[in-house]
């Protein structure tokens, strides 16, 4: 799949876990010393994927198993090269997560009027980079699947911030 996701010096990224608004790592998305990330709107994966909360630190992972699980809800951002490099490092790419392109259905668009490349297509579907994983533990496939991650959700699996890990 050869999708072009770059918009000049900006790329579209879909976040579904701790980087969303109101979640423990959102602070990184608004920290301009790490680069620029502009919130564009809410979306969900066109294909279904398993979203699990796994490991000792209750980290959300979208497993790269298309057709299984749910349509995953998240947020769409445009990011500059500096923020994309930060996100690659933050997400442990390519070991822990892999940055791939996925088709995202736009649910709500707040992006400012701008170039046609930034606005969603009339179909409401756009290509975005997503951090998912093919390097997961086999037993994670047996975990409960979620469609919308919230670190303080009813699952009771509170995310452990990096600075609080042993």
TrEMBL record:
It catalyses: epsilon-(gamma-L-glutamyl)-L-lysine = 5-oxo-L-proline + L-lysine. Residues 13-133 form the Gamma-glutamylcyclotransferase AIG2-like domain. Its EC number is 4.3.2.8. It holds the Pfam family GGACT. Catalyzes the formation of 5-oxo-L-proline from L-gamma-glutamyl-L-epsilon-lysine. GO terms for biological process: modified amino acid catabolic process. One of its GO terms (cellular component) is cytosol. This is Gamma-glutamylaminecyclotransferase.
């Amino acid at each position: 799949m050869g999708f072009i996701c770059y918009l000049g010096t900006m790329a579209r990224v879909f976040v579904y876990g701790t980087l969303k608004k109101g979640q423990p790592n959102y602070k990184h998305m608004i920290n301009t010393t790490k680069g620029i990330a502009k919130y564009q709107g809410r979306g969900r994966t066109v294909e279904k994927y398993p979203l699990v909360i796994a490991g000792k630190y209750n980290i959300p992972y979208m497993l790269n198993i298309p057709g299984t699980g749910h349509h995953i809800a998240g947020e769409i951002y445009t990011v500059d090269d500096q923020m994309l490099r930060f996100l690659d490092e933050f997400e442990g790419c390519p070991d822990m997560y892999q940055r791939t392109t996925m088709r995202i259905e736009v649910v709500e668009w707040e992006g400012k009027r701008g170039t046609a490349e930034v606005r969603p297509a009339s179909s409401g579907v756009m290509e975005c980079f997503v951090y998912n994983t093919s390097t997961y533990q086999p037993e994670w496939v047996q975990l409960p699947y979620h469609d919308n991650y919230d670190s303080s959700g009813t699952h009771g699996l509170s995310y452990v911030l990096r600075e609080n890990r042993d």
